[in-house]
Design goal:
alpha+beta, 12-stranded antiparallel β-barrel, 4 helices
Amino acid sequence: MDELPPLPIRPSNCPPGLEHLLQIDQLLVHQQVELMEVVLGIETNNKYEIKNKLGQQIYFANEKSKSCSKLLCGRRRPFKIHIVDNMGTEVIRLRRPLRCGTCWCPCCLQKLEVQAPPGERIGYIVQKWNSCSPKFIIQDENKDAVLKIRGPLCLSGCGCAVNFKIESLELSQKVGKISKERSNLTKEAFTDADNFVIKFPMDLDVKVKAILLGACFLIDYMYFEQ
């Protein structure tokens, strides 16, 4: 792996460990292929490599959830995802409670909490009711809306990337996107390992960048976890 460039000086409003996000406008998220899933078809804890656009790994994510939750709840299972840097220090923690898996129950839709550092909430991803396409609101630590995410009507992609647009609140101007990229056909046939690209403005608040990373994981579990 190529050596990462020196980290910039951390501003006072940047949580420890998020310095890697200060000077980037793109993240690559690659789910690792698990041998147990390929050979036995048994769902295991998901693991992800998180890289910059040069392909240099900056974080590693590891799901923690109970086997009974995987068996009974499937893609709706509650979990924690621990995101560590290359030194093994946990810098971001994602927490997903058990909630409803259908948009026809608008009182208990999906929600993900983002902590950075672990134990300190910096924001939330909240699913909004919509009968046609996926919609989410990005909230800060005070639960004030910051951005919104709008998914496509068709999630199959038909062999192409599936794009979730990141938009401003007022004018619905596109400010970025979360794209589920097409994987190797053999990989898709035998596993549920997915690849994503997250694009956002370079000068976006570093906490919001971390929350968008959390949104990528929630989208993966909700729509692409088999």
